[in-house]
Predict the 3D structure of the following.
Amino acid sequence: MLENEANPTLSKSTGLPRKRFYRARAHSNPLSDSHFPIPISPHHVDYSLHYPQFFPSPDQTDSSKKIQFADIGCGFGGLLISLATLFPETLMIGMELRDKVTEYVKERILALRTANPGQYQNVSVVRTNSMKYIPNYFEKGQLSKMFFLFPDPHFKEKNHRRRVISRFLLDEYAYVLQVGAVIYTITDVEELGEWMKTCLKEHPMFEALTSQELEADPVVKLLSSATEEGQKVARNGGQTFRAVYRRIAPSL
Ligand SMILES: C[S@@+](CC[C@H](N)C(=O)[O-])C[C@H]1O[C@@H](n2cnc3c(N)ncnc32)[C@H](O)[C@@H]1O
């Protein structure tokens, strides 16, 4: 019997997990306390669980290789899957609040690893609340790219505090980003696009990339095309609003 006949959650033709077995609520409340394991510090993140080919044993203390890209609210993981082959030596992780969606991404990565030996070993996902636990996963100056693609808009003013980009959260992101690192944001909600751009523009530790820099960065092209949400917006002919900023050293 074929393996996928035994496991109906995997597609018979592609071997990839089928989304209908991972239905999730449209939203999760980022301010509520969910129950999932949280590493007490970045040193306690077990890299061997996430990247077994790079870290065959749980003892990673001597390793200088660390996660460099974080996709915040990664959804079904489309961006990470594209980045994994574009940057095969870079460790990257998706952070996702919804458990079933996280499970789907896990299965997707495992299926891709099986179908493509040696590839997709640098990509992983974790179920967590990025609004609370970023410093548990990353050290000061660790990350070189952070992604916030089509984040939940939280339209009502009283819910703006649930937005994953805010003045206060940018302080935290500036802490875990190295100088020169880039934050990528995109949305199809104009008001949220303005909000994210204003937060970044007004923050002393970020500056906008120039149009030439945006043109030269291969990752920028993926922002609207690689994620499931971006593809949905493109199918519906929707407009997108992008803000891409670099972490700079504070001026003295
Ligand atoms: C609209 S979806 C976009 C998904 C993906 N970035 C894309 O473009 O297809 C937003 C995702 O962010 C997740 N999310 C919202 N708040 C979060 C938080 N505080 N921590 C982690 N994930 C969060 C949601 O569960 C949802 O999957």
In short: The CA atoms of residues 65 and 91 lie 8 Å apart.
